[in-house]
Amino acid sequence: MINGKLRDSLGQFFAWASSGLAISVCLGIIVYLFVKGHAQLSLDFLLTEPTASLQDGTSGGISTPLIGTLLLAVLGMALAFPWALATAVYLAEYAGKNMAVGLLRLGIDVLAGVPTIVIAIFGVAIFTIPQLGFLSSMVEGVEGTNRAFGRSFLVAAITMAVMILPFVIKVCEEAIKAVPHSYREGSLALGATKWHTVSHIVLPSARGGIITGVILGMGRIIGDTAIVWLTLGGTMRMTGIQPWWQPVNWISTLQNTGSTLTSYIYYTSPAGEGNMPEKAFGASFVLIILIVVLNLLTDFFGNYKNKVKED
């Protein structure tokens, strides 16, 4: 009995200690970034475009990297979500246990484990072929060269969609499987078809988990650097037809290069060419805040899902 109580006490102690350590590390990173970068935080920093300069006072802010981050996250998720949801529905509701389904699951697991740098290189190799030049632009001014530039928001978004696809599939599939079977049985007993049951009963019931998958996928896009650097480029400003924000120029903006907060941080850090660590710390703090907000939204929808179940 004593040994059992001792084991329980030790288990609780290590559980609390592990949780405390994780929270402390997270808070330590946030506080450190705030201390090092708070001097840069202002509306001017958030709303001004970056400018090529060796002086902090004239180097501008992070408006275009911030917009590029949000644009890439939304565009990448918009491309990945329909495929991810369709695959999750098939695996959870229609797929049986056979070799083809096993190979599909194996492919999803393998893709989830592929490093992002490998996916980025794959994207560069694919989207530089001339036939896909409409997604970016064609290389000009180089004699004997017929290839696409292979760097744009569209190219980066497609590559990001490939990267997050297995994670969104897994989350959506688990959300669909978590819907009680009694919901399906009741719908089918009333004469509804299988697809009507899935589309009108199962998917609405799994909405909270599906939204969680979307938010987590966007978080992965926001935090990636390798794919951004190789398939979007490192230009701090939008390089399409100017002004880039006018609706008539949106297609040009998507077909050209830009930046995100991660590429901006790399560029302004001592490892990049900018060597402005204060700007890098300020942008890092903004990036952390975005990720924290996304995780809070994930918790909110998770709690909302549980509340709906209880009701």
UniProtKB/TrEMBL annotation:
Keywords: Cell membrane, Membrane, Transmembrane, Transmembrane helix, Transport. It is found in: Cell membrane. The keyword Cell inner membrane does not apply. InterPro entries: MetI-like (IPR000515), MetI-like_sf (IPR035906), Phosphate_PstA (IPR005672). One of its GO terms (cellular component) is plasma membrane. GO terms for biological process: phosphate ion transmembrane transport. It is a multi-pass membrane protein. This is Phosphate transport system permease protein PstA. The lineage of its organism: Bacteria, Bacillati, Bacillota, Clostridia, Eubacteriales.
